[in-house]
Amino acid sequence: MMSGLVEHLRRVEIFSGLSDEELLQLATICKPQRLPPETIIFEEGADGNELMIILHGSVRISINTRLPNGTFSVSTINVLYVGQSFGEMVLLGGATRSATVSTVDTCTLVVIQERDFAMVCERNPRIGYRVMRNMASDLAYKLRSSNLLLRGNIRWQQGELGKQG
């Protein structure tokens, strides 16, 4: 089981660059969790202290958005699949959840508690360094993407898009 889990962890982006020995150290703190379809894993704004990795299935990431009339609507912003992780922000300081995550179909997740991850990093700082570096790279990409979407939305709202020059 442990070698199979190491293989899964090897394909997780935030663990890129870690050796087999380092992945094995992480595997020892992983807890499997199986969830049925349409299960809310956590809600936007909730406190959290675990990172999750998808072993099987997929999850929907959604946020509450305010409509022009003042009401709120749930908007799906992403769907994640096998090998992808979510909840990483807890590794950066235990912030509240930035989105709601729910299962699309039956899912098997690997759950890593923040305190367990911190203990592994205390014993092996290289693991923490690689994971934080990979997370920084991923967050920079997401920030650039969000900026582009926001600029496009602002231009659209101001009527700039679609104008013929």
UniProtKB/TrEMBL annotation:
Secretion signal, residue range per the UniProt entry: none
Residues covered by the Cyclic nucleotide-binding domain: 14-138
Coiled-coil regions listed: none
Any matching Pfam family: cNMP_binding
UniProt name for this protein: Cyclic nucleotide-binding protein
Protein species of origin: Candidatus Viridilinea mediisalina
